[in-house]
Amino acid sequence: MALLELHNLKKYYATQKAVDDISFSVEPGTIFGLLGPNGAGKTTLLRMITGILYPDSGSILFKGEPFDAMKDVEQIGYMPEERGLYKKMKIGEHALYLAQLKGLEKNEALRLIKEWFIKLEMQSWWNKKVEDLSKGMSQKLQFVTTVLHDPKLIILDEPFSGLDPVNSNIIKEEIFKLAKRGATIIFSTHRMEQVEEICDQIVLVNKGQKILDGSVKEVKQQFKQNLFKIGLDSNTSLENSNVFEVIKENEDHSLIVKIQQGYTPNDVLLHYINQNIPIHSFQEILPSLNEIFIQLVEGTPAARQFQHIPA
Ligand SMILES: Nc1ncnc2c1ncn2[C@@H]1O[C@H](COP(=O)(O)OP(=O)(O)OP(=O)(O)O)[C@@H](O)[C@H]1O
């Protein structure tokens, strides 16, 4: 049974269709990526899933039952993109305050906070004030306060924003560990490359509508273009054949080829083997989520936001 099901959710702000008839479900134990450009409707969706906003129409089921914010909220940890911390409070006190709001008893909360502070190398911050934290430090504090009560569903809105590569990796590892221990994680971002590394399942939204969903693997397979990278000797002459078209010749003498309709990778290999040309490597090139997204919304402002030249 899905942990979370969204059925035909709609949310308008005046005439702005922020979420326009979106449905999807999230299976337990998955790391689920909610993707889309700025203004796509991700935060509005998350606010409905966490009970901060009511949908104008549609329904949300949590563990198969209609979602009840008052009852279910203890099983949810939500890290919003914006900072939701009290600036004048000390870090340790703040973490304790939020943990108790989530229903943890004081001694248990203190024990867990200490454990997490050690794990994330935050022990020395206990008596610092929130206002003295950098953006990345407060992001770490928000992460700890989100996961401390061991929620079943963890919702992270742009969790890596403001974090340097070392801290991003620390948080990423913790996300993997939480999922391994059985938590379900919804991870919202406009940074597609992060999702490829982290998520099992994705939903892509644009202008309030779902434009794609599935596992990262399925989605990439669906959009693949029969491109392969072949590593050859430096003195191999370049040629097309009826089996493939050479799309690009790289400086390292590898080729990017597109296999023609009706042929298979084995036909490409046979082409070289029959001519006694050594092959050093042979690898399928799958599109990145960024490229898939651009393909889907080509020509729109959202596509331009993601346009880049693949390496
Ligand atoms: N309180 C509001 N009043 C009016 N319009 C809003 C409000 N909040 C969001 N919107 C609009 O709804 C749409 C969806 O916004 P939302 O914040 O959900 O997008 P998002 O995908 O989270 O974007 P980002 O990646 O920039 O955070 C946008 O067009 C936004 O301008």
UniProtKB/TrEMBL annotation:
GO molecular function: ATP binding; ATP hydrolysis activity
Domain spans labelled ABC transporter: 4-232
UniProt entry tagged with the keyword ATP-binding: yes
Keywords: ATP-binding, Nodulation, Nucleotide-binding, Transport
Keyword Nucleotide-binding: yes
Signal peptide: none
Protein family (similarity comment): Belongs to the ABC transporter superfamily.
Name of the protein this chain belongs to: ABC-2 type transport system ATP-binding protein
Species: Flavisolibacter ginsengisoli DSM 18119
Lineage: Bacteria, Pseudomonadati, Bacteroidota, Chitinophagia, Chitinophagales
